[in-house]
């Protein structure tokens, strides 16, 4: 089953040089040359318009198609927020068939469009029958949902952050490693916990943290400087919000490396009750915190296992 949601894979560039949606799922399938696959054109949006409610719509569609006999699911998705959708599905949508997200870095009418090849590879993975859970297939590489992130705007394989669990070689899926389950629990309600991201910079104050708390945030992700560091004004604000019941996790704006509280400011955050997320960066850390809150999971143990 091919579910389409929009994204670069379904676009063509108009006379003004702007990529706009132009292709249906049947069009994408025809361009891939894969063969007969059932198609569900679920939505047509730029992935910047993706929302938690739309994650739930995708999850419900996946569960529904599997209940009706689908043996593999491919989701064509824009790359800007593919990593968040993939993780949400991995955390909250357990089905006994492969669920493979893919997309494209180049529009469908580009002379070297990568969409048809990516879709063909993703369909190959979905048809393999392997117990993979939710994965991302891009440029022949197959990645687990947990830890993947977009790192390049134009490169054919714009994703990194985690080692692949498989590859597509000569039209066949080759498994390289296990893909451990990330499932926390099924979430069916449309209203999800509000979790916001605050990016720190020299001179940050508590204004954004306070505003999100007033708006009803149940969780906050602090995108810290360096090894989990923040100034005293931010630390005081974080401590106050934790005392009021808001969960706070800490990531870093640094692209690589495992985060740990190695300096006094980071330790102060931990002492206040904030939880360091070692490997996930802000986008996926937010999804992880949302899913932990929505499923009533113990946040520390979830981060120890998946963060």
From TrEMBL:
**What sequence ranges are listed for the domain L-asparaginase N-terminal?**
1-172
SMART domains linked to this entry:
Asparaginase (SM00870)
Tell me what this protein is called.
L-asparaginase
The answer on whether this UniProt entry bears the keyword Ribonucleoprotein reads no
Q: Is Hydrolase given among the entry's keywords?
A: yes
Q: Where is the active site?
A: 8 (o-isoaspartyl threonine intermediate), 79
Q: Where does the Asparaginase/glutaminase C-terminal domain start and stop, copy by copy?
A: 194-299
Report the GO molecular function annotations.
Answer: asparaginase activity
Q: Which organism is it from?
A: Mycobacteroides franklinii
